[in-house]
Amino acid sequence: MRRRELFRMGGLAALGAAAAACGGGAGPTPAGAAELQFMYWGSTFERKAVAKMLQAFEKQKPGVRVEALFTPDEYDVKLNALVAGNRTPDVGYVPMAMSFRLAEQGKLVNLHPYIKKYPQLGGYLPDAYLWYGPDKLHGVATANESMLLWYSRAAVTEAGIAPPPADAASAWTWDQLVQNAFKLTVDQSGKHPDEAGFDPKQVRQFGVSCSFTYPAAWYGFLRGNGGDFADEAGTKCLLDSPESIEVFQNLQDLVYKHRVAPGPGQLAATGDEVPGTSILLKTKRVAMVVDGHWSLLDMNESKVDFGIGVLPKYDQPYTTTQVAGASSVFATTKHVEEAVELFAFHIDPRYVDLYAQGLWMPQERKYYEDQAAVDSWTKNAGHPPEFRTAVVDYTRDHGVPAFGNRVKNMTAIASDVLTPALQEIESGKRSAAEVLKEVTPKITEMLQGWHHAQEV
After folding, report:
1. Nearest by Cα to 209 from 145, 147, 157, 138
2. Phi/psi at 392 (nearest 5 deg)?
3. What is the pLDDT of residues 187-211, one digit of tens each?
4. CB of 194 within 8 A of CB of 182?
5. Rounded distance, CA 296 to CA 281, Å?
6. 31 to each of 59, 61, 411, how far by Cα in Å?
7. Which of 110, 171, 329, 407 has its CA 20 to 30 A from that of 290?
8. Inter-residue contact 361 to 124 (CB < 8 Å)
9. Contact 127/108 with Cβ under 8 angstroms?
């Protein structure tokens, strides 16, 4: 349902009916039961996993009934409409930037007082907590996700190269990435970019692909090279620093100088749509792709012969970006205690299949440190042998949270200035230095600082 259809059908009333139709409770509500609504987005697989989780919650809490509001399209539009009508669910996913705004408006429950009552809430990784002021916690990141280097085992074998390293200590340098990408890139006649007669307009397989416009794809490189998006105060943009310029020029050079990465439109099957990472690897359109951990589920479902490596390194140990959406309890709930219990329950790997199946990574610290806990979500056929070092250890020891979740006013910054600048760098029409030196002062004018952070 699109925005115009919501208005045509009567706005909030239509939205409420449509959202309810997407979910549905698990049968008649027992007399006197506390009724909750849980709103979320996701794939068909995620919908099934959430339904199973909610059934498990109701089984543990027989006095509670939960209605699932599955909302796969235009989630932010529909949630904003519910907020405007004061008809928000009890618990649900919240787009990260929106979550801070709603918290500051008093629309979300402050969870800080519940940390001691519910021990699980005190055991998350530090970057999972979403603070909007001293002792003011409006939620946690729903799941932990990190950026990785996915590769086709068949392509690597055919090229006769060693696969991307699966541990941070052995990570390729940027130059090693380029050298191996040369060997993995071939045109329709079988020539490589460093061979005479190579046709860059007829590339059968690109060596590597990394998004310019999705910040999580390159933020780990930025931090690894000693750069950052903004200074400690969050009021000065640093994208015009030599460290930042080097990273973006390296990305641009993959496309236009080395010719080992696709340019705009070169991977699109129809229109502007680029196939997912699992399809790119399975069809051998690309040999290596920088993408998030969430791709694991699609890799397994698509039967891709894949491997996972850590990203190439620069000078610093920060080499991967952690990204996530938010989950919160809404202030309109009439059952705060039950809603907080559901909130803690819905991201517990003991009750949600999405961790073992490969879509999500846990937020609790024990799932990265305790061997039995690590095995509980990774020791299965869906997780390759290198997963422990390439993903679990790598994320724990070398991950940094995405800046987009922590910079105030990020939505406006991204849409008005940052994304157009990144698209220009991707186009190759101007150097990274020219574009970044021009856009950095504009971003600085819009910066309002970092969101609050504190220890639990």
Report:
1. 147
2. -65, -60
3. 999 999 999 999 999 999 999 999 9
4. yes
5. 12
6. 16, 14, 44
7. 407
8. no
9. no
The answer to whether the beta carbons of residues 46 and 354 sit under 8 Å apart is yes
Q: For tokens 């990204």, what's the residue?
A: 323
Residue 436 has pLDDT above 90, yes or no: yes
Written in H, E and C, the secondary structure of 5-56 is: HHHHCCCHHHHHHHHHHHCECCCCCCCCCEEEEEEECCCHHHHHHHHHHHHH
**pTM summary value:** 0.89
d(CA 343, CA 92): 8
Chain-centre distance of CA 52, in angstroms? 23
Q: How are strands ordered across the β-sheet holding 34-40? A: 64-70, 34-40, 91-94, 326-329, 136-141, 129-133
22, pLDDT greater than 50: no
List domains and CATH numbers for the chain: 3-144+324-364 (3.40.190.10), 146-225+243-319 (3.40.190.10)
Contact assessment for residue 389 and residue 166, using Cβ atoms and an 8 Å cutoff:
yes
pLDDT for position 24: 44
CA distance 58 to 336: 16
Q: What is the pLDDT of residues 381-419, one digit of tens each?
A: 999 999 999 999 999 999 999 998 889 999 899 999 999
Retrieve residue 311's tokens.
Answer: 């990203």
Per-residue pLDDT band for 269 (boundaries 50, 70, 90) equals low
Q: Are strands 286-292 and 203-209 parallel, antiparallel or unpaired?
A: parallel
CA 335, 339, 344: angle at the middle one, nearest 5? 155
Residues composing the chain: 456
The answer to whether the beta carbons of residues 407 and 413 sit under 8 Å apart is yes
Which residues, 6 or more positions from 8, have their beta carbon under 8 angstroms from its beta carbon? Answer: none
